[in-house]
Structure formats: structure tokens, C-alpha cells
Amino acid sequence: MIWLYLAAVFLSGALIATQAGVNSQLVRFVGHPLLAATISFIVGTVALAICSLGVGTWPRFASLSAAPWWVWTGGLLGAVFVVTTAALAPTLGAATLLSVAVAGQMTFALLLDHYGLVGFAVRPLSLWRVIGAAFVVAGVTLIRKC
Residue 17 and residue 117: Cα distance in Å, rounded? Predict the structure, then answer.
């Protein structure tokens, strides 16, 4: 079953690479990365609303008031990523853009795991995890140099 999960994450990563290019092209037509990101999020919101209607998933409004403040920032965090990639994809290229993004994700993910932040289980920093992250950073360097 883990392979199915890994395949799903791999595919979603591939879609992120495609999204950066699609959104950067949208910028050409609408004139600004913020507007392109807004359009992207509107389309995504409509798609998610339709899917939610299809599966009958609705929020439990009573439990939302008990949620910590930071659970509301997910969309904002995604918006920063979408605007940044839409603006910089043509300049950096897909491989550099996304390898640097993955290096940032990996580096911060180690801290999130180590301290058990934002709902992650604590997974202490280890030499092997640091080496893995170093390989990601080395990959960024190789992609950027070649």
C-alpha cells in the first residue's frame, strides 16, 4: 500500500512542475503573477467545491472554532508558492525552480519533523536524514551548474 501512496505523491509532484509552467504562461495573458495566482485559485476552488459536493463532505462548523489559528494559513502558504513560481518559472526554468523549492521543503520538513510542529509526529533529526537533505541540496547545485 505504501507504494500506492508514494506513487500518488510522485504524481502530485509532477503536477506541481506542470502547474508552475501553466501559471507562468497565464501571467503572460493576464499581466501579473498575483492575478494569475488568483485565477488559478478560483479554478481550484470551484473544482474542489464540485468534488466536495460529489462526495458529500461538509465541514463540522462547531469544531472549526476550536481549531488553532495556524490551520487557516494553508491557503496563504499555497498562494505564496503559486505566485512565486508563476513569477520566477520563466527566469529560472522548471528544473532549477523546483529543485530549489524541494530543497527548501526538505530542509524545513526536517525541522517540522524534529520538533513535531503543525501536527507532524516527532521524528528526530538524524545523520542519515541530514545526509539525505544534503544530497537534495547537492542535486540543486548540479542542476543549476549544468
Answer: 27
Query: How far is the C-alpha of 133 from the C-alpha of 117, rounded, in Å?
Result: 18
Render pLDDT for 75-95 as a digit per residue (tens, 0 to 9): 999 999 999 999 999 999 999
- 59 has pLDDT over 80: no
φ and ψ of 59, to 5 deg = -70, 150
Burial bucket for residue 75 (CB in 10 Å: 0-12, 13-18, 19+): exposed
Where helices occur in 93-123 by DSSP H, the ranges are 94-115
Cα torsion 111, 112, 114, 117 to 10°: value is 130
d(CA 62, CA 66): 8
- Number of compact structural domains in the chain: 1
Cell numbers at 139, concatenated: 542535486
Which residue range forms the structural domain that includes residue 60?
A: 2-145
- 108 neighbors 75 (Cβ within 8 angstroms): no
The three grid cell numbers given for residue 53, joined into one nine-digit string: 459536493
- What lies within 8 Å, CB to CB, of 139 at 6+ separation is 99, 103
**Would you state the cell numbers that stand for residue 83, as one nine-digit string?**
505566485
